[in-house]
Amino acid sequence: MDRIIEVLRDRIGEKRLEHTLSVVEESLILAKKHKAPEEKVKIAALLHDFAKNITLEESIELVNKYNLELDDITKTSTELIHGPLGARMVRDYFNIGDQEILNAITYHTTGKENMTTVEKIVFLADFIEPARNFDGIELIRERALENLDEAILMALDSTISYLINKRSIIHVNTVNARNYLLKNGIGE
Ligand code: DGI
Ligand code: FE
Ligand code: FE
Question: How many Å lie between the centroid of ligand 2 and the Cα of residue 31?
Fold first, then answer.
């Protein structure tokens, strides 16, 4: 853990490390509440923004170096690249092979259809960690303790509204994540 934190401090800087540690803390609260494997959640949360402070140009170089196959929308945005690229990088840096951890990192920004509890928790913890502040966040924080799906739906609605207001492209995974919850009912 200490070694990972030192590598992280070096890569993403002190401020992003603070955010990361808040996400770890938040995700452990959610893991306890929803009976998810705490060690997995912790590792995924700790590494979720590993590829965050990388320029688009350098990100694309790394994507090519790792032969990562990404769709065209993802490749045009550092916001969308850093999840999948980060997952590939931590496989390399820390020899992490657990697919659920890697998926939680890959999809932490957009979400996806049919997420596991670990994936849901990392997605939400990133969204509601204490330093985040936007309209409606308190309600999402409360719901996250009771019903992960409901809280994720609220988070996705908020992100989609934000993206529409900015006239940004909405990634298909973001839409699929939301449609899946609406189609399949709000579970636990
Ligand atoms: O990396 P963080 O800042 O901690 O948080 P994050 O990985 O959730 O990234 C949030 C950013 O990603 C936020 O500015 C909104 C953006 N984003 C989320 N979903 C989509 C998206 N951007 C686009 N273009 N399309 C999406 O579907
Ligand atoms: Fe992120
Ligand atoms: Fe984050």
Answer: 19
* pTM tops 0.90: yes
CA 185 / ligand 3 centre spacing (Å): 27
What is the position in ligand 1's atom list of the atom closest to the CA of 49?
Answer: 1
DSSP assignment, residue 36?
Answer: -
CATH of 2-134, one of 3.40.50.1950, 1.10.3210.10, 1.10.40.30, 3.40.50.300: 1.10.3210.10
**The pLDDT of residue 188:** 54
Exposure of 112 by Cβ count < 10 A (0-12 exposed, 13-18 middle, 19+ buried)?
middle
Two tokens, residue 83: 């999840």
Contact 83, 109 (CB under 8 A): yes
Instruction: Round to whole Å and give the CA distance between 75 and 71.
Output: 6
